[in-house]
Structure formats: C-alpha cells, structure tokens
C-alpha cells in the first residue's frame, strides 16, 4: 500500500538535516567544477618572448660624425666663486670658470650630448660590463656631461679632500642623494629607464653641476672642446640624431646611413 503524501511529508520533515544537506550540496558543486575541461592556455600564455641581443654586422657597419657649432656672439667667460670652501679653492689648482656654454676654436660647442632619438626600435643591446665613472675632483664634476646605458653601472668617485653630496635629480628613474667623504669607496648606482637628461648637483657646493644621459643602446657621444663628435659601428638605416645642450635645448636631424658608409653632420645652436 502506498503511503499517503501527507505521511511522506511528515517523514521528510522529521529526518531532514539542513547542515548535512548544505554539506552534500557543496560537495556536489565542487566535484562538478573539478570535472570542468582544463584551459588549454599554459602559465606562459600572453608572455612575450625575450628579444635576442642585436649584434652589428661589421662588414656593413657605418658611422655618423660631425661638428657642433655655436652661432652668435661669443659668450663672456664667467668665473666661479669657491671662496666659501678654501679647500676647494686649493684643490681646483686654478681659477674655475662656468662651463655651461663651452665655445671653443672656430665656435665649436663642447659638452653637447648626441644620441639616436629614433631608428633603433625593436633592437636590444647587451649591457656593458665596464662602469661609467663620474669623478669629483677640484670640487668639480668630471665629466660634466656623460652618457650611460640602461642597467650599466655608474661609479661615483670622490678625489677631493672634502665631503661632497651627489644628487641626480631624475624624473623617470629613481632620484637619489648620497654624501661621500674623502677616501670613501665609490658609490655604485644603476639606471633602469632611458632619460634625457638627468641634472646632477652637489648639495654642499652649489656651483657643482653635471648631466647624465641614460639611453638603451651604445650609440651616443659627447662633443669635445672643438665641438667634434663621432658615433661609430652603427647598422645601416634611417635615424633621427638628437643633440642636447644644457642651455640651448635640443636640435635634431634625420639621416640615412648606407652599408659601410659615413655620414657627416653639422648641428648649429643659436645664441638665446
């Protein structure tokens, strides 16, 4: 004989356990999810393969060289007053002059930083193992303008008998500020991103100035006292060459360099 529906309902109510029901439902859902088809995408899905290092074919390597010229009245030479620190006066071995605008023979412009502004996209270069050295000698940064590659070590040295404080005021890279006394070991730092240019000052001696150009390739140069520069070992291609000067800004030229060729440029900076 079949049980009356009301009797069945009473039996369900009598033996139903909400806690056991919830547990069973959770197990069922978990088992169902575990049987879902695994994704075909592995852990490396979406990751880009690392670009191999680019090596220039020496048979077709080219170069860009030239001169930086200052157009305008030759600027007056401005002396620097170091009398606040007699040790600096003694260490400099002569009267210091402002070097923010270095105009030499035939109006050649020194301390201009030249670099490839475009044309090397997609190429990755090995980081040099030799560090770039910035020295503090005669209460002066040497060199005043320097280039370095991303990831390359910079060694900051103090050759003076006084304490200095090197302070690169980076905007893209991490800004840092470090004191260095006489005889202290070199300060070793790295830059992780390209940045043109990073001004450097000494917080102790206000006249000390320098500039660091951080680039992602080995193709850069700093013009000498006569305004001459050379960028060698360049692969053939079309490039925009930028020339930066701390007071006069940046000039650019686009050039095409053929296999095994050499291109000669002249950049003109006009007085402001």
Number of strands: 16
Q: How much of the sequence is in beta strands?
A: 35-45%
Sheet having the most strands = 5 strands, mixed
Q: CATH homologous superfamily of the largest domain?
A: Carboxypeptidase-like, regulatory domain
Broad shape: globular
> Helix-strand pattern, N to C?
HHEHEEEEEEEEEEEEEEE
Number of domains: 2
Kindly identify the CATH topology of the largest domain.
Immunoglobulin-like
Radius of gyration: 33 Å
Order of strands across the widest beta sheet? 5-11-10-7-8
In the predicted model, the low-confidence regions spanning at least 5 consecutive residues are 5-16, 23-36, 38-43
Helical run tally:
3
Description:
The protein is built from 3 helices and 16 strands. It has 272 residues and is mainly beta. The protein folds into 2 domains: 125 residues, Immunoglobulin-like, CATH 2.60.40; 91 residues, Immunoglobulin-like, CATH 2.60.40.420. The protein has a 5-stranded mixed beta sheet, with no helix packed on it. The protein has a 4-stranded antiparallel beta sheet with strand order 12-2-14-15, with no helix packed on it. Strands 4-3-6-9 form a 4-stranded mixed beta sheet, with no helix packed on it. The radius of gyration is 33 Å and the shape is globular.
